[in-house]
User: What shape does this take?
Amino acid sequence: MKLSVIIPNYNDLQGVLTALNSLLALASGTIDIEWLVQDDASPDYNALGVIPPALASVARNNENVGFAMNCNFGASRATGDVLFFLNQDCFGVPEWSRGWDKALVAAFDDEAVGIVGARLLFPDGKIQSVGGLFDAKRQPFHRCLGWSNPLHPQANTPEYVSWVTGAAMAVRRSVWEQLRGFDPVYGRGYWEDVDFAVRAQLIGHKVWYEPRCTLIHTVGSTGGNPDFMKNAQTFREKWESFIEPDVAAIMERFW
Assistant: This one.
C-alpha cells in the first residue's frame, strides 16, 4: 500500500518542518510514502516558497477555507491507498515513533477497517488520545485522557473504537472517496473527525486504534475554533439518533 501523509497547514512553519523531518527520519523505509502540505493561505508566509520541494509537495489555497475543506483539498492531490491526515503540531520522537508508517499501514490489512487512529501523547508524555467512545448522552469522549502511563493496557492495546481524532487519522482511500471527505460545515475545525467516523461506520466500516503508531501532539498551533460548541450542536443534530452509547456514564458536557 502507498501512504499519503497530508499536513493541513496554517502558519507555524517550524512546526510543519519538525513534523516532516521527524516522521521522515523515523519511518521504516519499507513503505512508499508521499508527503503533501496544504497551506490554507497562511498570512505569515507562503509555504510554496519556504518548504523545500524535496521534502514535500506543497499547494496553497487562494483563500482561507478552514480545516475540513483544507484537508479535502490536500486529499484531492493524494495518490496513496491510505490517506494520513496529520496536524502540523504533531511530530515523532525516537523512543516512541520508529516504524510508525509500517504499523499504520498494516492495520488496513483488516478489510473491515476504514479508519485508523494513532496514539497521541502530550509533550510531557501523558496520554492525549488513544481512540474515543460515546457516553450515555451520545457525546464523544477521549479514553484515558491525561493518564500518566501510556503503556497501561487500555492505552497500549490495538482495538476497535468508536472514533479517533483528526489530528492523526488515517483513512482508506476508497472510504474517503465514498464519503466525499470531511463535511465543510465544521469550518475551522473540530467535530469533522467524529462526524466522519460515524458516517464510515454507518456504511459498514470499522475504526481501529493503533498504538504502535505513536506521536507527540503539542495542541492548538492554529488557535482553535471559537465555533467549537456550535459545531457540537451541528454534530448532535446530525447524528445523535444514530449513535449507540459505549458506556453508561456521562463523560462530557457538550449538550
